[in-house]
Write a structure and sequence with these properties.
single chain; 130 residues; alpha+beta; DNA Binding (I), subunit A; 2 domains; 3 helices; 35% helix; 12% strand
Amino acid sequence: MVLRRANRGSNKNQKPSSYESRKLKTWMLAEFGDGLTVLCHGTCGRHLFYSEITKDRFPKPGRKGGRYVKGNVRPMCMSCNASEGARSAAEERRKHQERLARRRAVYAERKRHGLQDRPDSGPRLVEPAA
C-alpha cells in the first residue's frame, strides 16, 4: 500500500505542466510579439524566438503569491530572468541604470585624465589635440 500526501493547494507558485507552459509561450508570442519573435521584457530588449523564452511572473512576483497565468507572465531571456532573482522588473531596471551610470562616470573620468580604452592593447595615454 502506497501512502500519498494529499494536495491541499498549499503551493500556489507551482509551475505549470509542460502542455500549459507551451500554451503560455505561444500566447506570449502572440500577445507581446509578432507570433514568431517577442522582445525580452528584461534589461536587454533582445528579440527572442520560441525556444529562448522563459516566463517571468509580472506584475505580481512569485514571492508575493504570483502565479503562472496569462495575466501574470511576461517573456524574458534566460540571462535577464536569472540575473533578476527575486527583484521585480522595475527594481532590476533601476539596478541596471545605476550600473550604466557608474560605467559612464568611470569612462568620463578616464577621458578627463586623457586615458582611452583600446580593445587591442588596453588603456593608453592619448596625446591632447593641438
